[in-house]
Design a protein that fits this description.
The protein is α+β, with helices and mostly antiparallel strands. It contains seven helices and 22 strands. Bound molecules: 2,5-dihydroxybenzoic acid and fe (ii) ion (FE2).
């Protein structure tokens, strides 16, 4: 760490300097560090994240994942052909932010990723393609374009590509949070999948995917959503309706031309996972989000369209599949050039639960 300012009462005579140097040496030997040399670094006036704003281009991510599909087998041990997006500010760790993991996972024709479970919470978001079933807690869940799928911590899960076409998707997990706090437990499941059937609808959806209706046999709040799949047709329809209602003069959108939905846990109305928030945004051509800052970090993926992510005043053009990261307290704003659909996930539930959450709307611009 950089050393901070010398305290006002620092002595100046050569003898005093020598005594002071000896004191610092003894601090070091005794594994002690004085606060006054660290204050600016440890307790900045406002968040000074090491994570950097960054954009990963789908046009670069996908071909590299494809190449991994050709060269690297998937199976027991490595478990997944998942390639993490590594934030350039995080010392070469495979972390997109200090709390979040984002990876592109690729499964070739008829490949199987074996079952395991871990305390890390996970989701999948499908940019394009179909044909993989993720088996969560013995329940096969189809993965298709635009779907948002959950794998809450400690559920056994594996994936199966039941088709002759490859499929890739975005994984999000709280791996860095669990790693940084030494909370990881992991267990292999049996080889192969517990259920190789390929139903249209999972048991989780048959139980939980009826708007506003909870099965009475299973009432009670749960820390993670029991709804394993949030289908694109529902997300899309909700956004279409918000924009239609806005056009009819009703209050339905976040701001003019910006519709958004939060994926939520039907047993609580809260976030889908204890550590991860996820939502989906639609901007009409020319629309923009209000510039703001929030603590914690977020990761966005462009689903369709084209626009600009302005992060800390820097304009990043983004399009289909591009992933970008907004570090803690960075100012950000999203502008749609053409109609723009975006998926986003954040670590906000962690910081809301700990009463550390803060957000600031910047009406006068992003500077
Ligand atoms: O699909 O089970 O990207 O366990 C990282 C860890 C995916 C998975 C990742 C995992 C998985
Ligand atoms: Fe996993």
């Amino acid at each position: 760490m950089a050393s901070g300012p010398i305290p006002a009462a620092a002595p100046s005579s050569p003898a005093a300097e020598k005594e002071l140097a000896e004191l610092y040496a003894k601090f070091g030997a005794a594994h002690m560090i004085p606060l006054w040399t660290q204050l600016g670094e440890l307790m900045p006036d406002e968040p000074a994240p090491r994570a950097r704003p960054h954009v990963w281009r789908w046009s670069e991510l996908y071909p590299l994942a494809q190449r991994a599909g050709d060269l690297v087998p998937v199976g027991r041990g490595g478990e997944r052909r998942a390639i993490a997006l590594a934030n350039p500010g995080l010392d070469g760790m495979p972390f997109v932010t200090p709390t979040l993991w984002a990876a592109i996972q690729y499964l070739g024709p008829h490949e199987v990723a074996p079952e395991h479970r871990h305390t890390q919470n996970a989701f999948r978001f499908v940019l394009e393609g179909e044909g993989v079933w993720t088996v969560v807690n013995n329940d096969p869940v189809a993965m298709r374009r635009g779907d948002f799928l959950l794998t809450p911590g400690w559920n056994f899960h594996g994936h199966q590509n039941a088709t002759s076409e490859p499929m890739a998707w975005l994984d999000g997990l709280d791996i860095p949070f669990v790693y940084g706090n030494d909370l990881s437990f992991f267990e292999y499941g049996p080889d192969g999948l517990s259920d190789t059937s390929t139903p249209e609808r999972s048991r989780a959806e048959r139980l939980w995917a009826h708007p506003g209706l909870q099965p009475v046999a299973l009432l009670g709040s749960r820390p993670s959503s029991p709804l394993a799949a949030y289908r694109w047709e529902h997300t899309d329809r909700a956004l279409v309706e918000q924009l239609a209602l806005e056009a009819e003069g009703h209050q339905a959108t976040v701001e003019p031309g910006h519709a958004a939905v939060r994926f939520s846990n039907p047993t609580t109305g809260g976030d889908v996972l204890p550590t991860i928030r996820a939502d989906f945004h639609r901007l009409l051509p020319g629309a923009a989000t209000t510039p703001q800052r929030e603590v914690g970090s977020s990761v966005w993926q462009v689903f369709t369209g084209r626009g600009t992510a302005v992060i800390n005043g820097v304009e990043h053009p983004v399009e289909h599949g591009d992933v970008f990261v907004v570090p803690s307290w960075a100012s950000y704003e999203i502008r749609a050039e053409v109609g723009l659909d975006l998926f986003r996930f954040t670590d906000a539930p962690i910081f809301e639960a700990l009463h550390q959450y803060r957000q600031l709307t910047l009406r006068g611009g992003t500077s």
